[in-house]
Amino acid sequence: MSVREDITKDIVLKLQNINTVKMGSVTREPMFRDETEFYKLARTHFPHVIVTAGNESRTDLTMGGSSILREGVMSVEITCFVKANDKALDTSINDLIEAIEEILDADRTRGGKAKDTQVKEVTMGENLEHPYGNFKVTVEVNYIFKRGVT
Questions:
Q1: Is the predicted pLDDT of residue 150 greater than 70, yes or no?
Q2: What is the pTM of this model?
Q3: 97: left (phi over 0), alpha (psi -120 to 50) or beta
Q4: What domains appear along the chain, each with residue ranges and CATH number?
C-alpha cells in the first residue's frame, strides 16, 4: 500500500475516533449521489464526514541509483455536513472544527508515515436550510516516500 493511502486511512480512523463530539459517519465516499441529497441521511449519520485525498506536489530529494527518495505535500479535504440538534448550528460547526483539529494535532506524523500534518484552511459551505450546515477543512500532509526498487 502507498504511503499516501496509509496517511489517508489514518486520518479517517482518527476522525472516526473523535469522542468530544457525537460523530455520525466518517467515510471516503459520500452516502448520497448529489450534494443536494445529504438531508436524506438518517439523523445518526450526522455529522457526515467525507475524507478525500486531493492534490499533491512532489519533489525529488535524491537522484540516481535504483531508488529515488521523494517528498510529497498532499492536500486532504474533509467535507462535513452537520445537523444541529440541541445546540445552535454555528456552535455545532465550531465544536466539530475544533474536534477535527485536536484529533489530527495529537499525532501530526500520522503514525510515523508523515513529517507533518497541519490544518491549513476552514471554508464554510453554502447556506443550507436550517438545521443543516456544511464546511470543508483542508489539511496539508508533508511526507517522504521511495520511488523505484530498493
A1: no
A2: 0.89
A3: alpha
A4: 3-148 (3.30.2000.10)
